[in-house]
């Protein structure tokens, strides 16, 4: 097998879509072996061995914004923690050393944070096989080349079953109102197919599923870290979704109908819950850990504070408000928005992996990585923090004029919220004396109102959610970690100062990494 040995490792986001493996040779160098999901090579030496851009980022990890241009702040030294004291604690780094991973969803936001953390803290990890979904070979090759600067392709899919120690399923379709067939294919059939593969792996130590805390459905009160009681015929739901009965135009409605019929908020969490159900039903002697994060937002610390990709759950509201397009929202003012930084999710994942990846008996363990019990962020507090940030650091309009925003109004009535939106839109139109411009603005305002009403409708099950996610198992993990592990793999949500995180970390990160370069948002 030919390979290209590199010092640096660069992660560059891309919108295009194979298989790939990352394999470290030693603590100071790594080789990266790549292949697509096809049965023949799709990447040649010539296409990737010219590494000027890689050399430029030597001995660093580069995480760039979606436009593909590297950012000065988006560089972190690749310094391994080789001097970590591994006496006591869980032994996270010790577990990672030499292990072979198979990771799905690695080109997503959380997947990139996970791989960066593994490579930085355990540079002598064995291999990381990464599954990339692509429309064709060329798309897989292009995405691979853009996402990770690598060496040569080789087809080793037939070797994975005899090689892999840990499977991490991070792939998901997170659209709340996705087509039912599409969501089931990824969120339910995906885990089923992967578990079927896991049972063929000769030395597998753990199957780790990245889920969501909201798989618990529309429940109230304290929600415990427990598996589901099987009361749903998942096989029948799959058949319903894939029947050729002319329902194509109504697949979105079907997904929402089925979810709400059985007590879930939307198609996303319903199909993720069914994914957990099939894992539990199929696992047999396979050890399983399920990580259930709440709302994943920008990083708290690693690879640096505030890094993120794309709009996360609460970010459309944050952006609309900052641009002056949203002055109120439909939400329980005293309700809790359960937010957790991405790197804390990754750290909890690695701790759970090390804890259960060497357990003497197979079992299924569940962890809520959530803040609603340990450190709740109340909606009216979030609204205050947003106003504080934009009052001191306003966005600029297309003319460079600061956009001044009022305090956000919170409405617990759909009618009151709708009336507020139309009144706000009417005020904007009336403020323009030019009749021609006013009509154009009226059309824009009408479209914005409809978008905001749709957003509020989709978010309503979450903005009025009365459940609180117990995290006793997560607390138990932290209790057995060494002090060094707590420093390098910390996930204590109680340590988050929400004012500092929202105003000084998250919103600046959102503006820098997601909205940078977009007109009217500087």
Biggest sheet statistics: 9 strands, mixed
- Please name the CATH architecture of the largest domain: 3-Layer(aba) Sandwich
> What's the domain count?
2
Might you state the CATH topology name of the largest domain?
Rossmann fold
What is the level 1 CATH name of the largest domain? Alpha Beta
**What is the C-alpha radius of gyration, as a whole number of Å?**
23 Å
Q: How many helices?
A: 19
Give me the oligomer status. Answer: single chain
Q: What is the SS-derived class? A: alpha/beta
Q: Uncertain regions: pLDDT < 50 for 5+ in a row?
A: 1-85, 147-155
Family: Belongs to the fatty acyl-CoA reductase family.
Pfam families: NAD_binding_4, Sterile
Function: Catalyzes the reduction of fatty acyl-CoA to fatty alcohols.
InterPro entries: FAR (IPR026055), FAR_C (IPR033640), FAR_NAD-bd (IPR013120), NAD(P)-bd_dom_sf (IPR036291)
Notes on the protein architecture:
With 522 residues, the protein is of the alpha/beta class. It folds into two domains: 5-311 and 338-375 and 467-514, 3-Layer(aba) Sandwich (Rossmann fold), CATH 3.40.50; 379-463, no CATH class. It has helices at residues 45-48, 52-56, 92-96, 109-121, 137-147, 157-160, 180-187, 189-198, 234-242, 251-261, 267-282, 315-322, 342-356, 379-392, 414-430, 435-463, 472-479, 483-488, 498-514, and strands spanning 5-6, 9-11, 19-24, 30-35, 60-63, 75-77, 100-104, 127-131, 166-169, 206-210, 221-223, 288-293, 295-297, 328-330, 339-341, 364-369, 409-411, 467-469. The chain has a nine-stranded mixed β-sheet, with helices on both faces. It has a three-stranded mixed β-sheet with strand order 2-5-6, with no helix packed on it. A two-stranded parallel ribbon has the order 11-18. Helix 10 (251-261) crosses helix 11. Residues 1-85 and 147-155 have low confidence and may be disordered.
